[in-house]
């Protein structure tokens, strides 16, 4: 299963149109997420465009591996997830993975047609929108692109992790 | 927390004494376990005396990291465990870990005084006994050694994985 996804910064020019869409969408969930990103002992995940993270949300923890992006426009990539509990952070550290950064955000998730739209208020970064589609076909990313065009949104391909690391420099 | 542990092969000379002890012990649990062991992309776990495995038992899956043995006699070592579900095998494979071998066994777990005694019927290896004590102090392994002496048992420090790999050669 692929995670077809595009992201954009919400600003004063785009906020109005996004809010129009959200009025037609169904609010599914609002939650606080804290992500811990890890670096690999053998690969520079920044170079290979991979990511390994643990996401804590409520009483759940999810380990996620994200493969390299599959095209030049979207954030679509291969993704594997496992629910975890117990000593997972210690196990990763013993295997040589190191904590890079924590990303904290408040996330509102909406369902709009076949799309999952997340409105993220990210600590130290501000508000972003993500549109996601689950599919086995990378070509379906065009459907997200069309919605982006309708909303005059500009695709931000860098992850919150990258944006936060840039800001810290 | 340390896993203080010693293991011995059960044979016709030791079986009688072990059964005497088990008659005074309480049977806690009987279960089938299937362990998948992984090799690391950067370290030779055989050299570093570490192990990474997923244990499937019933509907549970546990990811375990075992550090190097802490002394020359027992199998005592640092151990971290996490319950896992979902794509954990795929995540490990994406990070470069490779499946080495599956170890299948029927395990009966007894409580005898402060010791946990496991009687393992291991596929392709036969019957083994393991005596375990949870403790923060490596010196407590002497209490297991004393019980081993009482039972005339000889310590087997090699893991089931190592024994199976030797047998396959």
Automatic annotation (TrEMBL), chains A, B:
User: CYTH domain location, by residue?
Assistant: 1-166
> Which InterPro entries does this chain map to?
Adenylyl_cyclase_CyaB (IPR008173), CYTH-like_dom_sf (IPR033469), CYTH_domain (IPR023577)
Q: Which top-rank group of organisms is this from?
A: Archaea
Entry protein name: CYTH domain protein
Q: To which species is this protein native?
A: Candidatus Methanofastidiosum methylothiophilum
